[in-house]
Amino acid sequence: MAEKTISLADQAYEKIKSNILKLSYPPGMSLTEAMLTKELGMSRSPVRTAIRMLQAEGLIVTDYYKSMTVKEITDKDINEIYQLRELLEGEAFKMIFSEKRHEEFSYRIEEKIVRMCAAAGDVYEWEVADTAMHMEIVSIFENERINKIYESNLSELIRMGQYSIKNGMHIPKTNENLKKMVRYMRKGDYERSFEILKADHFGIGKNSALKKNSV
After folding, report:
1. Which domain holds residue 148?
2. Where is the HTH gntR-type domain (predicted)?
């Protein structure tokens, strides 16, 4: 069976989105069809379709004068996303222990941490693996609506996470702390394991991301 051909519009979409998520096109950067068609080596038609797709996702915004920019990440965005994460992941983590599934989830989470360690040399790939680890935590709810909330915010989570790393969040130290969290989970120690998640990811992660507007 012949492999399904990826349309030029889809190729343009994937490339532009990748550049946005990897911060090659940083928040606030101006974009034009002419620039994108030249960089991608494509005609305007597929690029225009890709732009519409990314506008629908909220990654590209257009002002009154139809100027295009990569969506900014404001302090309000960062505070709201981290508040959402703390509320959902905090309850999920508690539920993992109350349902006595901490040992099971320690292995499931550890699998994601192994991926994070393997990707430590690539900030973007590490952040993708880190996001998968957090989605593993909320999977305890078995709630499709909650999954969709996380999925709809993945692009912002990945971009914010890279800001955290650029502004002080240390990948090797975070990986070691998460390994320690897993060990506490296996021992059934909710307080110590949750304290690591709260301090490292919600505390350092949020505060480092917020530094982006003050540097």
Report:
1. 75-214
2. 6-73
For residue 68, the SS3 value is strand
Report yes or no: 68 and 34 within 8 Å, Cβ to Cβ: no
Is the C-alpha dihedral spanning 7, 10, 16, 18 positive or negative?
negative
**Claim to verify: residue 200 and residue 156 sit in the same structural domain:** yes
Note whether residue 165 is domain-resident: yes
- 49/81 same-domain check: no
Lookup: tokens for 150: 């996380």
Residues 14, 115 within the same domain: no
Tell me how far apart the alpha carbons of residues 22 and 14 are, in angstroms, rounded to a whole number.
12
Residues 193 and 109 in one domain: yes
Same domain? 40 vs 102: no
How far from each other are the two terminal CA atoms of the chain, in whole angstroms? 53
Dist CA 61 CA 108 (whole Å): 37
Q: Which tens digit of pLDDT belongs to each residue from 39-63?
A: 999 999 999 999 999 999 999 999 8
Structural domain includes residue 90: yes
Distance CA 94, CA 76 (A): 27
Q: At what angle do helices 171-186 and 102-118 cross, to 10 degrees?
A: 160
